[in-house]
Amino acid sequence: MSPARRRANAATAPVLRRPVAPMLAASVDLVADGAGLAHEPKWDGWRCLAFRESDGVYLQSRAGKNLTTYFPDITRAIRTLPPGVVLDGELIVWERGRTNFALLQRRVTAGRRLLGLVRDRPAHYVLFDLLADVGGEVVLELPLSARRARLERLLVDAPAQLALTPQTVDMRQVADWVLNWTVATGIEGVVSKRLAGRYEPGRRGWWKFRTRIVTEAIVGGVTGGIRDPVTVLLGRFDRRGRLRYTGRTHPLSGAQRQQLGALLSPPRVGRHRGAAVEHPWPEPLPAAWSGQLDRLAPVRYVRVDPTVVAEIDADVAFEHGRWRHAVRYARAQPDMSVCDVPLLLGEEEGYFGDLR
After folding, report:
1. What is the mean pLDDT of residues 157-186?
2. Is the same domain home to 133 and 183?
């Protein structure tokens, strides 16, 4: 179709107006495999829809919030694209070759320091879909393969901050992403999509596999009660022997609550050099400790004596000494000492020092 014909069709086509609910992915325990599927890295950043409007750029979060103010570097890059384009992708910030989620969050709280942060820690927009093409032509009904081809053409001369995400049908490449990229670059896993699939706003029509690890942590507190815990607040010791908060679990099952409740006890107040030594975490737990901007309320919980070790199943979004997402509690390990739990090392200690 000629450019003139495309412009004429776009003039009479429906316009994609914001906000638009992004298409979502359902969690799976194995990478989806089969004919007609393509796979992409699951980036550790903020989902973002970008609207290149006639008079500027608008960045929309997954929840429909306006992110435009916090990413002037990205809006400047998107201004180089033709008006009418609507993009879907992930905002990320690189630090020493890995994605750094905390640097994204600082954009929101930087205030007057925002421009300095933009200069020193520029963001990138990793793109994986196209919702509207040049002139506002809505392409939701096109198959993913066709939308991808249009997106590739659109980004040929785009600034480096606008990057096309890798895509493959080769399961060997997928295995390399899962086994190596999660460590080297900080991606969270793999997203699988039908090449023939259309873009369905708000629907979970894709599949996401998160790389997970099995490890241990120390039970430092619980929501609910000591004898009937609902969720578990986890910690690890740093090299100075201080117990640091590292994350929280999903709700426990009935059997898990009963087993763990039988092992817990209230915190003991010891003495060190004549002074009382109390549980090191504040109660309630500060909202900032959750690492989630959409959870602004402090967490009420019950402190426990940090002597019980828990086996957990967690994804790889572990940054600055904390799991950003809730972890899966597997079981208590009464035969393990808290001294056997991995320590927090390196930059994690400094991070907690800033928060305390």
Report:
1. 91
2. yes
Distance CA(209)–CA(42), nearest Å, equals 8
Hey, how many other C-beta atoms are within 10 angstroms of the C-beta on 278?
11
pLDDT of residue 349: 38
Q: Which amino acid is at 8?
A: A
What tokens does 132 get? 């509207």
Domain stops at, among 210, 229, 250: 210
Q: How does pLDDT run across 259-302, given as a tens digit for each residue?
A: 999 999 998 865 434 444 478 899 999 887 765 555 568 889 99
Is 306 within a domain? yes
Whose CA is closest to 307, among 246, 250, 237?
Answer: 237
In angstroms, the CA 79 to CA 260 distance is: 55
Residue 119 structure tokens: 């200069």
SS3 (DSSP) at 257: helix
pTM confidence score: 0.72
- Would 178 be classed as within a structural domain? yes
Residue 16 located in a structural domain = no
Give the 3-state secondary structure of residue 289.
helix
Residues 89 and 200 in one domain: yes
CA–CA separation, 149 and 169 (whole Å)? 15
Sign of CA dihedral 112, 116, 119, 122: negative
Strand partners, 244: 236
Q: Are 44 and 92 in contact (CB under 8 A)?
A: yes
- Is the torsion defined by CA of 217, 218, 222, 226 positive or negative? positive
Write out the residue range of the structural domain in which residue 179 sits: 25-210
| 15: in domain | no
**Segment (H or E) for 194:** strand 189-194
The pLDDT tens digits of the residues spanning 66-114 come to 999 999 999 999 999 999 999 999 999 999 888 888 888 889 888 999 9
Are 246 and 235 in contact by the 8 Å Cβ rule? The answer is yes
Q: Which of 88, 123, 89, 90 is nearest to 106 (CA)?
A: 123
Report the 10 Å Cβ neighbour count for 32: 19
Indicate the number of domains in the chain: 2
What span, in angstroms and rounded, lies between the C-alpha atoms of 33 and 173? Answer: 13
